[in-house]
Write a structure and sequence with these properties.
By secondary structure, the protein is of the alpha+beta class. The chain contains five helices and 22 strands.
Length: 442
C-alpha cells in the first residue's frame, strides 16, 4: 500500500527547498572552525607553560640569592692603649683674689681722673688727683710755726748753758737752773709737735694723689671730676679688681672629698680645668689651692678653691664655669669609644670585628667613662675594631662591612689615648640598641 504525501502549498515549498540546498556548505565549514579553536587552545597552553617555567626559574634564583649570607654595613673604630684621667666635676664661680674699692683719704675737689674705664692699671699708678693747694697752705703754716718754735728752743738752750756756768759759781740759785732745763725740754716737745704738723700736711698732699694699691682692672667711674669728695663717702671713687692671678671657688659632693684629700697628701698640687657653661671649651688650667674646713649640711657639698694664672684674661670675676679636678690617672688601659659600649641585663659588652669580617660579642668591664671614650677591662686588645654604629642587627658570627666614622676625629682621639676635655667618671649608660648577650665571650 503506497501512501501518498500531501501536496504542500507553494509558499512552503520554497523555504524548505532552500534549507535542503544550504545544509551542504554548513557541513563543510565545521571542520575549519574546530581547527581554529584547537590552534588557539594550543597557543594559550604553550604560553601558560612558558610563563610558569620562567616564574619557577625566577623564584629559584631568588631563593638561592636569599639563602646567601647577608653583609651588614657598620661603623667601627680600633681600640687603643693610653692614659685616661679620673676627674671630679663641680660648679664654680670665678672670684678675684683681691677687690679694692678706692676711697679718698682727704676731703677736697676731684680735679683729675687719670684712668680709662676698664683699663688695667699697675700698683702705684696714679688713678685720680684731688686739689692739693689747701694742704700746701697747711704745710707752709706748719713749717712757719716749727721755725718759730725752733728759735725759741735754741734761745732756751743758750740760757741753760749760761745758768749752768753761773750755778757752778753759786751766782744763781739751783732752782733757776732746773727751771731753765725744764723750759728747754718743753720747747723741744713743741718743736716735735710742729714737725708732726708738717708731716701731716705733707701726708695730705701725698693723699691728694690717689694711686692703685694693687695691679688690676678698674671698673666704671663712680665720681666725675669737679665733685667734692670726702674721706667718709661710702661709695668710693672706683672699684679695682685683680684678675691675674684669679681664683675659682667650686663645690663637689661630700662623698667625693676623701679621694681628693688622699691625693693632696704629700704636698701634691692637683690640676683643675675651668670650662665654659656647656663643658665644650677649656678656658684655663690651674691648681687646687685650698679646701674648706666644713661640709655644707644643707647641700651635702664642700667648697674648694683653685688658683689660675689667667695670663690671657679668659677668666672674669663672677663668671660661671665648670671646674674639673684631676684626682688621678689610669695609665696604659684599653680605650674604646663610649658608643661601642652596649649593655644587657646580664653584662656589658662590645661587638668586635674579627679578621674574617664577622662580629663577636665580648663581655667587658667598664673602668671609667670619660667624654666619648671608655676604659675597659676585658678580652679586647689594642688595634681590634669595635662597632660603634649599626649594632641593632648584629648577631654573633654576622658578616659585616666595616667603615670608618664620618668624623675622623673620633678615631684619632681614641688612638691618641689622651684625656678628653669633657670627661666624667661615671659608669657607661646602656643605649637603646643594647642587645642581650648570647653565648660566652672568648
Amino acid at each position: 500500500m503506497t501512501l501518498e504525501q500531501p501536496e504542500l502549498p507553494p509558499s512552503e515549498v520554497e523555504p524548505r527547498a532552500l534549507l535542503t540546498a544550504g545544509s551542504e556548505p554548513v557541513r563543510r565549514r565545521r571542520p575549519l572552525l574546530w581547527g581554529i579553536v584547537a590552534a588557539v587552545i594550543a597557543v594559550v597552553a604553550w604560553r601558560a607553560m612558558r610563563g610558569s617555567g620562567g616564574r619557577s626559574a625566577t623564584s629559584a634564583a631568588a631563593k638561592g640569592k636569599s639563602s646567601a649570607p647577608r653583609t651588614i654595613p657598620v661603623v667601627a673604630v680600633s681600640a687603643a692603649s693610653g692614659n685616661i684621667g679620673v676627674y671630679v666635676d663641680g660648679l664654680g664661680t670665678v672670684t678675684a683674689l683681691n677687690t679694692v674699692t678706692i676711697h679718698s683719704r682727704v676731703d677736697g675737689e676731684l680735679v683729675d681722673v687719670a684712668y680709662r674705664e676698664g683699663q688695667v692699671v699697675h700698683k702705684g699708678d696714679v688713678i685720680a688727683r684731688i686739689d692739693p693747694r689747701p694742704f700746701e697752705v697747711q704745710l707752709a703754716q706748719a713749717e712757719g710755726q716749727r721755725g718759730k718754735d725752733e728759735a725759741a728752743l735754741e734761745n732756751a738752750r743758750v740760757d741753760l748753758e749760761r745758768y749752768r756756768v753761773l750755778a757752778a759759781q753759786d751766782a744763781v740759785p739751783r732752782q733757776q737752773l732746773d727751771t731753765q732745763a725744764a723750759t728747754v725740754r718743753q720747747d723741744e716737745a713743741v718743736v716735735r709737735s710742729d714737725q708732726g704738723q708738717v708731716d701731716a700736711a705733707k701726708l695730705n698732699i701725698a693723699y691728694s694723689r690717689i694711686t692703685a694699691p694693687i695691679t688690676g682692672r678698674v671698673g666704671l667711674r663712680l665720681v666725675d671730676p669737679g665733685n667734692i669728695v670726702h674721706a667718709s663717702d661710702s661709695g668710693g671713687l672706683v672699684v679695682l679688681t685683680q684678675l691675674q692671678p684669679i681664683a675659682v671657688v667650686f663645690t663637689i659632693p661630700a662623698d667625693q672629698l676623701p679621694p681628693v684629700l688622699a691625693a693632696m697628701r704629700g704636698g701634691r698640687r692637683l690640676e683643675v680645668d675651668a670650662q665654659d657653661r656647656d663643658m665644650k671649651t677649656k678656658l684655663a688650667t690651674g691648681t687646687l689651692s685650698a679646701v674648706d674646713n666644713q661640709i655644707d649640711t644643707t647641700t651635702g657639698t664642700v667648697k674648694l678653691k683653685a688658683e689660675f694664672a689667667n695670663e690671657d684674661g679668659s677668666l672674669f670675676s663672677n663668671q660661671f664655669v665648670n671646674a674639673r679636678l684631676l684626682v688621678r690617672t689610669l695609665e696604659n688601659v684599653v680605650l674604646v669609644p663610649a658608643a661601642a659600649i652596649q649593655r644587657s641585663p646580664r653584662s656589658t659588652y662590645v661587638w668586635v670585628v674579627r679578621p674574617d669580617s664577622s662580629v663577636e660579642m665580648r663581655d667587658v668591664t667598664v673602668q671609667l667613662t670619660e667624654g666619648d671614650r671608655a676604659a675597659v677591662d676585658g678580652p679586647v686588645a689594642p688595634g681590634e675594631p669595635v662597632v660603634v654604629d649599626g649594632v641593632d642587627k648584629l648577631l654573633p658570627g654576622t658578616k659585616v662591612a666595616a667603615s670608618a666614622p664620618a668624623a675622623p676625629g673620633n678615631a684619632a682621639a681614641v688612638a691618641k689615648g689622651d684625656a678628653a676635655p669633657n670627661a666624667r667618671s661615671d659608669a657607661p649608660r646602656g643605649g637603646a640598641d643594647a642587645r642581650p648577650s648570647r653565648g660566652k665571650s672568648r
